[in-house]
Structures are given as C-alpha cells and as structure tokens.
Amino acid sequence: MSVTEVDTVKAETATEPRRVNTSELRAARGLAAPAIILLILLTQIPFLVTIVVSTINYNLLRPNDRGFTGFDNYVSALTSGDLWPSIVATVSITAASVVLSVVFGMIFALLLDRAFPGRAVARTLMITPFLVMPAAAALIWKYSMFDTNIGILNWVSRSLGLPVVSWGTNHPLATVIIVLTWQFTPFMMLILLAGLQGQDKGVLEAAQVDGAGTWRTFTWITLPHMRMYVEIGVLLGSVIIIQVFDPIAILTKGTGGTKTLAYLLYERAFIGLDIGQAAAYGVVTVVLTLIVATVALRTLFKVFMAGGSR
Amino acid sequence: MPSKKRALVFGAGALASALTLAACSGGAVKSDDGAAGGEGGNVTLNLATVNNGQMKDMEQLKGEYEKANPGVTVNFQVMEEADLRAAVTADVASKAGQYDIVTIGAYETPQWGANGWLVDLTEPLASDSNYDVEDILEPVRAAISNDGKQYAVPFYGESSILMYNKEMLDKAGVTLSENPTWQEVADAAKKLKKGNTAGICMRGKPGWGDLFAPLTTVVQTFGGNWYDADWNATVDSPEWKQAVTFYKTMLDESGEADPVSYSFNECLTALKEGQAAMWADASVAASLLEADDSPVKGKMGYAHMPVDKTQESGWLWSWNLAVPATTKNQEQAVDFVKWATSKDYIKLVGEQIGWSNVPPGSRNSTYEIPEYKEAAAAYAPITLDVMNSVNPEQPGVNPQPWVGIQYVSIPEFQDVGNQCAQLIADYIANRTSVDDALGKCQDLAAAAGEAQK
Fold first, then answer.
1. Residue B227 carries which DSSP code?
2. Which of A78, A186, A289, B303 is buried most, with the most CB atoms less than 10 Å from its CB?
3. How far A202 CA lies from chain B's nearest CA (Å)?
4. Are B359 and B155 in contact (CB under 8 A)?
5. A309 CB within 8 Å of a chain B CB
6. What is the Cα–Cα distance from B372 to A30, expressed in whole angstroms?
C-alpha cells in the first residue's frame, strides 16, 4: 500500500511560538495557580506525610515509644491476614450491589419511561432513597426493616407464618447488599432513564411496523442502545460503593465477611489508634486501588471514546 | 445634577453610619478590656462531652456556674461516645490543646494519667473540705486513680444488675433471689422463652464496650480472665471456653432472635415492648425502665448481677471529668470540674430538672437525699449496694495486674477487645467454632500482653 498525501501531516504547534501572548498566558497560569496549589496542599502533601508516617512506630496511646521502624508496619499489615478477606469483602459487596441496582434500576426506568398519570410524583418518590444520608438509611433499615421485634420484614414473615429471619446475625453480607441496592437503584434508574428517553422513537416505530414483539425490540434495539449508559452507571456506581462505610459500621460492625477496606482502615486508625500501621494499610490500599483502577478504567473508559473499539 | 446630588447624600450617609459603627465597636472593645483587667481575664472553657442525658442536663445548668463566676464562659461540645473517644484521644495524645475539660471513661483515665496527659487533681480536691472527696464511692475512685493519684472526678457511675419483668416471671411461675447464679438465670430464661418473646436479652453486638462489657464479667465469674498476674494471655483457658459456650447456649435457647445486632439500646426497647423478660446490663438502664414514658414502669424487679464462682460480678463504669495538662486555663477548669461534681450540683439538678435525673453512682451522699430516695426507690438501694461491693482490683477468682472490671487498662485493649468480639460474634452466628475463635483471640491478647512485660 502506497502512502498517500493525506497520511503525511507535518507536526506543528497549534499557535506559532512568536504569536503566543505571553502576558495573557501568565495571567491564565496565575488564575489557575490557587486551585493547583490548593490541590497539592490537600492531596499530595498528606499523601507524602502518610508514606512517612507508615514507616514510624506511632501508636497514639504510647507516647514514649516512637521511632523509625522501616517496613515493620507493612510487614504486619500484609501478614496479619486481615487484608485478603477485606479485599474479598470489598469486591463482593461492590459487585453484588452494583449488579443488583443496575438490574432494578433498568426495570424501574422502563416502567417510568411510559406515560401515566402521576409520573412526576412517582419519579420523585423513586429517587428519594438516593437523597437519604447513608447513615440515616442504614439506621432506618436496622430498626424499621431488619429488627426481629419491630422490623417490617419480620412482621411480614410472621404474618405469613414463616420463621423470623435474624438478618444481622445470620445474613450480614446480604444485609449490607440489600441496603446498598436500595440506595443505589435510584441512581442507576436516573442514568438509564436518561438513556431510554434519548432513544430514537422512529427506530422503535420501525421495529413495531416490522412486526417485532416487545421482548425482541428490547433485546435487539433498546439493550444495545443502553450499553453505554449501563457502562457509565457501573463505573460511577463502583467508584462510590467501593468506599462504603456507614451501613457496615451501623449494621454489621464488620462481621461475617463485611469488613471492607474502608472499614478495616477505620478500625486500624480509630480503634487500634496505631497511626503508623493505619498509614501502612492506607498506602497498601492506594496501591491496590491504583492497579485495579488502571485496568478497570482502561476497559471501561472506552465508553467515553467516540467510536472506540465497539 | 439631581443624580449627582443623590449620590453625594448617599455617600455621606454611608460614611456617617460607618463612623458610628466604628465608634460603637471601639467602645465595646474598650469595655471588654476593662472587665478583663478587673477580674483576671475573660475565659472560655472548652468542654468535650458525651451525649448522655446527664451531660445534656449539665449543659442546661452551666448558666448557673457562669452567673456565679462572671467572666467565665463554658463552651460545650457534645458528641457520640465513639466520636468523643476518637476526638479527645487524638487531641490529648497529640497535645493539640483544643479542650480545657474532657469527659473520659474509667478505662482511659488511669492510662492517660500515667502518660502525664492529665492534671493531677489529688491535692486540689483533698484541700477543699467543702468538696468532701471521701464522699465519692470508693471502688469508683480506685478505678480512676493511678499510683494513688486521682486524675479525674466521676460525673456519674454505674454497675451492672439483672433486671426482670415481674409480671412475666409470675405468669411463668419463676422466682429469682436477690443474688442469683448464672445457672439459675439460664434455667429461668428457658422457662420464660415463648415463641418470639425472649427469656433474656444480652448484648451480642461486636465491640469491646458492647458484647465484651457483660461477657468479660461472665468470664471473670466463671474463673477466667484476660491475663494472669504476669500478663500472660489466658484466653485459651477452659474457663473462657466454658463461659463463652454458656453465653452462646443461653442466647440460642432463650435469647433474642438476632443477638449480633443487639446491644444496650436494642435490649432496652425489647424490655419496654415486653419482648424480653430479663436483661443483665448497666444499672443506669433501671432509671430508663422506670421513667414516666416507659410501659413497664413499676413492673420491674432488680437483682445483683448473676454469679458463678465469685461473690459479685457487677461491672464498674464511670464517666469522668478531667483536665488535660495542655490547658491554659487550669485554675478555672479545675474549679468548674469541682462545681459539676459537687454535692450542691446534685441538689441543683434535683431541684431544677428533676430528682430522677440526678447523676447516680458518684457520691454516697446522693443516696441519703430524701427526694432522690423517693424518686429512685426501685433501683437506688441496689445500685449503691452493688457499686460499693464490687472490687475493681480483683473482680475475678485470681489476682490481675490492672485495676478495672469489664476491661483491661492497657492501650491495646480497645483493639484486642474489638477483634475478639468480632470472632465471638462469628461463633454466636455459627460461622466458626469456639476453639477457633478463642485460639485467634488468644494470639491477639498474647501480642498485646507482651508489650506490658
């Protein structure tokens, strides 16, 4: 294949160097500087401090026993056996909650996409769970829903003659996932609803004319169109749910495979009060997150590339 | 022209009002300075405290103190127990000096005192005959002292007792003595268990201050303990296994349905709703069960905490006021702390807020006030009796190298207790075996014990 004229483009800066207005450039940099300095102060310096702290022996309650320990904190973090179960807990809670809330979000979005009287009210009511503060939502679920004496779930099962379920004791993982799914379904629903409403009605009409039934139209036309929205929902949902803390602190206290990385870090820092060790856990968590994020983002961010490999 | 004139007028008006304001504020500053010069300074005392009823009453009454001590303002920062512990520990340990007065538990006080973080209050308290430091309950004073020095004063104290619904016991034909054993209580609970109604409600929520508050006292009365006299961890002993198995069996046979979700507040609700017949927990619960809005008011009976091998097995807890060594207003802070724990303050609460709201378990003299005796007739005598008969120096069968009952006074205990509580919660939920849970707990406790040797 011969090289055509179009393929050879001379590399050139957008603006000729001598035509750049240096004073304007300086002003622009000056305007951006406060934000950049603040960003460095608030994120990069604390991160460096965390790395330094992670190499010293720093238990708040032992003021006379401080000093450089090298990698001891990392060794104890990696060998304590807490890290792996915590990674498993984080992944399983995040994955299950995200998948379930996408499924429910899709169902509710499809229902709300139809015209019916009182649709605006229904939509507002459906969004409410996402607007409740996470700690308040966990408390409401703990007492009004899961409680064995006064909870609605057990009232229903008692009324039906079924055995009472001890949610917190016997199903801690399901307890956390149910609360998270309840909270994040509206979030997914909103994203998916926007996708559904952006669908070309002409295409749907054409499908109807061609004799495609509801199910075929959904699987062959709506779902492929929704793929991008599902991917965005999964990406944003995972980023938010991976740092979840409140339902675990309120409902299960980290028992039964619900001790996520966020809760583990809290325990090390605020119950263990061992700042050095907590910092080491923090650094390990950041490294793990970076690895996962790089792989995940590379796959998922194709969403934002026009065309891409799809 | 007219618009220019208007602008001029506006400008003049603005200038005039600005000058007036300046003059006013100048005057205010001057008068402030005057007051400061005359009375030794305007002082703001920052007080961090826990959001319990008695502490909120103190906030309501602080005006009385400010009235009697012009120039002193007391600024309350009320927090949840866990938040308070984290905030105050971080502040005091890093010597940030944000607080002039802190509210700390019996667990922290001797440790912080030994670290030199708190002002030694022994002399200021003893030298004031009006304050009558000897009136403070002896076991409480022992628990918050270190090497004979008192680093805090108890605002209120509590022990643990057995509470039961007399109507439910009568219906089931069960009787309990004043000093029951755990075996008697477990047998009674089995008879009282009916359908969804629990025979006994006990804490199972993981946490050193949740599950382990009652469970440590059960272990201690069964003859076990966290450490022996030389700080060797003894969690893998047969006594521990016996006590923990007993606790779980009792919960399985006659406890609440969802024990791992239950702690103080959940059990309190269960008792009030008639969903549980008995409850062994903090003595302060009695005042809540006998409150005017409680459906079980007047129906409750009270007994000593059940025992096995020891004479008593009640715990001992107090919320105390202490002055961090970093404060710049030590004199005023000590003065306020004395006021808030004085006999006069207790009378003030009784008269202004109500006699049943008086902070209990701090002073013997409280229990001699006729109005309080009448208001708290159902539970005051037993609370005082239990609190004066527990022994924080040796609550169990064998001697222990620390002072304290339902906790171990070492920095690592929060962490060890918390992780062990999670392991035992897993055992209660049948996710692990008792040997496995206690074996892992032994390792955690042993590592913490090494640091003490």
1. B
2. A186
3. 54
4. yes
5. no
6. 70
pLDDT at A308 over 80: no
Give the C-alpha separation, A158 to B275, whole Å: 15
Looking at the DSSP bridge assignments, the partners of residue B158 are B317
In terms of CA atoms, which chain B residue is nearest residue A258? B422
What part of A 147-166 touches B (C-beta under 8 Å)?
Answer: 147-150, 158, 164, 166
Q: Structural domain of residue B432, as residue ranges?
A: 160-315+410-450
Domain-embedded: residue B299: yes
Q: What is the CATH classification number for the domain harbouring B119?
A: 3.40.190.10
Taking only residues 263 to 302 of chain A, the set having a beta carbon closer than 8 angstroms to any beta carbon of chain B reads 267, 270-274
Let me know: does B224 contact B438? Beta carbons within 8 Å.
no
In-domain check, residue B110: yes
Residues 6 or more apart in contact with residue B35 via CB below 8 angstroms: B42, B71
In a domain, B398, yes or no: no
Give me the average pLDDT of each 10-residue run along chain B (453 residues): 47 45 39 39 88 86 90 89 83 87 92 90 87 90 87 92 93 91 93 89 90 93 93 93 95 91 90 92 88 88 92 91 92 92 92 87 90 88 90 90 90 90 93 93 92 83
Q: Are residues B66 and B204 in the same domain?
A: no
Which residues are within 8 A (CB) of A207 and not within 5 positions of it... i.e. 6 or more apart? A216, A217, A220, A221
Query: Rounded to whole angstroms, how far apart are CA atoms B432 and B422?
Result: 11
Could you tell me the CA-to-CA distances from B346 to B25, B48, B58, B88 in Å, in that order? 41, 20, 10, 26
B302 and B419 within one domain: yes
So what's the ipTM on this one? 0.78
For testing the chain B interface, which of A61, A158, A245, A265 should be mutated: the one with the most B CBs within 10 Å? A61
Residue A76 pLDDT class (50, 70, 90 cuts): confident
- DSSP bridge pairs for B301: B164
Task: Report which of A241, A132, A236 is spatially closest to residue A177, judged by C-alpha positions.
Answer: A241
Place of tokens 């602008």: B7
Query: DSSP letters along A55-118, please?
Result: TEE-BTT-TT--EE-TTHHHHHHHHSS-HHHHHHHHHHHHHHHHHHHHHHHHHHHHHHTS--TT
Q: What CA dihedral angle connects A189, A193, A194 and A197, to 10 degrees? A: 180
Q: Are residues B118 and B237 in the same domain?
A: no
How many CB atoms within 10 Å of residue A79? Answer: 9
Quote the CA–CA distance of B146 and A261 in Å, as a whole number: 38
**pLDDT tens figures, A200-248:** 888 888 888 888 888 888 888 888 888 889 888 988 888 888 888 999 9
Choose between B416 and A272: higher pLDDT.
B416
Same domain for B199 and B264, yes or no, is yes
Cα separation, A24 vs A21, whole angstroms:
5
Residues of A in contact with B431 (CB under 8 A): 256
Residue B392 resides in a domain? no
Which residues, other chains included, contact B424 with Cβ-Cβ below 8 Å and sequence gap of 6+? B206, B211, B215, B244, B437, B441
Query: What does the block give as tokens for A177?
Result: 């996932």
